[in-house]
Amino acid sequence: MADTQSREMQVKEKQEVGQPEQTRPAPVFTPAVDIFETDKEITLLADLPGVTSDNLNIDLNEGVLTLAGDIEPFENPDEEDLLIEYEVGQYYRQFTLSEIIDQDKIEANLGDGVLRLRLPKAEKAQPRKIEVKAG
Amino acid sequence: MITRQFFDWPAFGWRSHFDELDRMRRQLDRMMGDTESQPFRGPGRGVFPLLNLTEDDSNYYLRAELPGVKSDDLEINATDNNISLNGERKLPEENENARFHRRERDFGRFSRAITLPGKVDNDKISANLADGMLTITIPKAESAKPRQIEIK
Fold first, then answer.
1. Is A64 within 8 Å of A98 (Cβ atoms)?
2. Each residue of B35-92: pLDDT tens digit?
3. B10: which residues sit within 8 A by CB, 6+ positions away?
4. Residues B115/B81, Cβ–Cβ less than 8 Å
5. What is the reported pTM?
């Protein structure tokens, strides 16, 4: 990230989720994520502006990780729209994890609208260096 | 009458018919279950951050989604009825041995300015950044507030 100084941010339109359909007719968006992996753990960062920790559901079931964030309406009902460039709605995204995760040690942190999820790999899934003995 | 309708639009530049139409079209698409269509970009859009501007009788509310932006990295300036936002979104350095599988979150500097449609009280502007959502509350100038006229 050496070119941070000169970098300008670009607008990304929010991506709407297609399927499955929701029971409530509100837009559902796919949050932008970064996922990276070290030998010990997988880290997932997701942009969830407006989602509070009470309204965020993280679920890991049979290798499928589900993120679901709800947004509380923050506009007063008597406000009138003058310019609307983005829409607000729920966030939803699912990932299939190929690694075995140590479920007890999952850590989730939500701050400034960014979720940081640490998924430690289970002991047996960590790469083990096999020593070859000369004999 | 149609002609009157056309001339009745507010004179500020950023509110275009296309934005309104675009929004309606997207809402219709959602109702029809069509998610394939590409978003139409009207004039003045496409600059980060996207802004929503609303008003009530006494204030304008300018909102933007800025996840991961610290208040120290954000600067808001107001001159007359122009509001400008300058800032930088920094992503923390991660472990150098990490292998990235996905990298969708953007970072970098941003700058955006907007002209409000009416007179405002510059001294009383307040801004709040919480959960990655910026809300700027801009009180309208006394002369711009709607006043109820008493009928004698």
1. no
2. 444 444 444 456 789 899 999 989 999 999 999 999 999 999 999 889 999 999 988 8
3. B117
4. yes
5. 0.73
Cβ atoms of A15 and A30 closer than 8 Å: yes
A64, containing H or E segment: strand A64-69
Give this complex's ipTM.
Answer: 0.77
Q: Report the run of H or E that residue B78 belongs to, with start and end.
A: strand B74-79
Query: Which of A9, A36, A51 lies at the smallest CB-CB distance from B94?
Result: A36
Site of tokens 């004698």:
B152
CA distance B51 to chain A (A): 6
Q: A65 and A100 in contact (C-beta within 8 Å)?
A: no
> Would the CB atoms of B105 and A32 count as touching at under 8 Å?
yes
Contact in structure between B140 and B118 (CB atoms under 8 Å): yes
For residue A80, give the nearest of B56, B66, B108 by CB distance. Answer: B56
pLDDT the model gives residue A25: 67
Backbone angles phi, psi at B100, to 5 degrees: -85, 130
pLDDT at B3: 39
8 Å CB contact between B30 and A25: yes
Q: Check: CB of residue A45 under 8 Å from CB of residue B95.
A: no
Which has more pLDDT, B98 or A26? B98
On whether the CB atoms of residues B145 and B58 are closer than 8 A, the answer is yes
Element (H, E) at B82: strand B82-89
**pLDDT higher than 90, residue A118:** yes
